[in-house]
Write a structure and sequence with these properties.
By secondary structure, this protein is an alpha+beta fold. It has one domain: Cytidine Deaminase, domain 2 (3-Layer(aba) Sandwich). Helix content is 25%, strand content 23%. It has three helices and six strands, in the order βαββαβαββ. Strands 1-6-5-4-2-3 form a six-stranded mixed sheet. Strand 4, helix 3 and strand 5 form a beta-alpha-beta unit. The two termini are 27 Å apart. The mean pLDDT is 98. The chain binds tetrahydrodeoxyuridine (THU). Tetrahydrodeoxyuridine (THU) binds next to strand 2 and helix 2.
């Protein structure tokens, strides 16, 4: 039998984070107001800190044709690639505002976004850290977003 072990860190709230992570999370919480989520009422924001110090924001963008909607994480990755080329992403903070309920537990990226994060990680050749939290409360830190997708399918599989 083989196994894959996954580890992440948890913190009671943002006051336990280092200054850089706390500032990025504050930006993500603030950016949830820029989501366009009239259908789900679930605003998500993903904010990236790049190696050169740049900060880029993505928010979920929905559509009356529901499947067209794009998650905050993929809006962010497209923006980073388009505007900053391959300047590596160091950390992404992800927050959300559930306008119909609570926003107090961390959420982690959906399956499609995990695949996109993996591809971006391989392209940039540097792990992407994730800082996950709602508008308040517990924070999860994952040191390598690629860990969220074990046994993944990548370009190597098509050699
Ligand atoms: N959503 C994200 O933007 N990121 C996630 O990690 C989970 C879900 C969006 C998609 C949709 O607009 C809304 O949240 C509800 O699923």
């Amino acid at each position: 039998m083989k196994g894959i072990h996954f580890q992440y860190s948890t913190y009671a709230n943002q006051s336990e984070l280092n200054a850089e992570d706390a500032a990025l999370l504050a930006k993500a919480r603030q950016a949830t107001k820029d989501a366009y989520a009239p259908y789900s009422q679930f605003n998500v924001a993903a904010v990236a800190l790049l190696n050169d110090g740049s900060i880029i924001t993505g928010t979920n963008q929905e559509n009356a044709s529901y499947p067209i909607g794009i998650c905050a994480e993929r809006v962010l990755l497209s923006a980073v690639s388009s505007v900053h080329g391959l300047m590596p992403i160091k950390t992404i903070a992800i927050s959300y505002h559930n306008r119909l309920g609570q926003s107090t537990k961390p959420i982690s990226p959906c399956g499609i976004c995990r695949q996109s994060l993996l591809e971006h990680t391989l392209r940039q050749g540097q792990p992407i850290r994730l800082v996950l939290s709602g508008l308040e409360g517990e924070v999860f830190i994952i040191n390598n977003a690629a860990d969220l997708l074990p046994l993944s399918f990548t370009a190597d599989d098509m050699q």
